[in-house]
Amino acid sequence: MELNFNITENPSYLQVYEFEKYDHEGVRLWLKKNWSFIVYTSVVYVSLIKIGQKWMAERKPYELKKQLVVWNGFLTILSFAVFIRMLPELIVECAREGFYSSLCHFENHNVATSFWGVLFCFSKVLDFGDTLFLVLAKKPVIFLHWYHHVTVAVYCLYVADSSDPSSRWFAVMNSFVHTIMYAYYGLKAMNLKISRKISMLITSVQISQMIFGMYINFLTYFTKVKGVACDRPYWNIEVALMMYASYFMLFAHFFYRVYVSRSQQQKLKRI
């Protein structure tokens, strides 16, 4: 299913910079033809985790504090840029057309939002770099970590050519969470003492993101079932729903294991 929509380069609600005016149709067609590169990249990524862990088995962990500060600082800035450039379109869409329209239609789509949306998708490949630091530091790479990276990257680049209206919500939510998350990691790399409550809050926000993501997919699915027009193909909704549901379960389990179960164990030790 291909969507028909207009992308304006001069929206009344947002100043568009010259570097944001790109050949969106050309990029869309390229992604439609070449999206599978992310599948091969993901296979290599997962393979390198195992290879890297074996290579590091007999070696001392690397000290990468400075590199981590730079890396997380860069991703914080990038995530914040995506968030602040994509958010205005959502606000205007909701204000002018309503929340439902923001999920199902592109009534006020502009080239800047489209540009940062594409950049957001490609940035999911950059997120693979997080794992390199874990492997070189000989820290565990849990299933949630690499599964989340791989599935988000594959989904983003697969659906990018169809320009799913709800993807704006997914990108804005994710970039907001990543801004906070990478800022936190950067500060931790600087050896700043941060309350455990902050990390709990970040995980809670991530879980809230998954709940809202499931809500969006359920809402658009049943809207289409009722025969109301919605420019989201069923396969897209179903795949996104399965992803968000799996993330919710994994993040909720992580929260329980790290913050609830450990706290209970520590209390028992004090008795």
Automatic annotation (TrEMBL):
Record's PANTHER family? ELONGATION OF VERY LONG CHAIN FATTY ACIDS PROTEIN 6, FATTY ACID ACYL TRANSFERASE-RELATED
Q: What is this protein called?
A: Elongation of very long chain fatty acids protein
Record-linked InterPro entries:
ELO_CS, ELO_fam
Q: What is the lineage of its organism?
A: Eukaryota, Metazoa, Ecdysozoa, Arthropoda, Hexapoda
Which positions, given as ranges, span the membrane? 68-87, 115-136, 143-160, 166-187, 199-221, 241-260
Location comes to: Membrane
Q: Indicate yes or no for the key word Ribonucleoprotein.
A: no
Q: What membrane topology term does the record carry?
A: Multi-pass membrane protein
Similarity section = Belongs to the ELO family.
Can you state which reaction this protein catalyses?
a very-long-chain acyl-CoA + malonyl-CoA + H(+) = a very-long-chain 3-oxoacyl-CoA + CO2 + CoA
E.C. no:
2.3.1.199
Protein origin, superkingdom: Eukaryota
Keywords, A to Z, come to: Fatty acid biosynthesis, Fatty acid metabolism, Lipid biosynthesis, Lipid metabolism, Membrane, Transferase, Transmembrane, Transmembrane helix
Q: Note whether Signal occurs among the keywords.
A: no
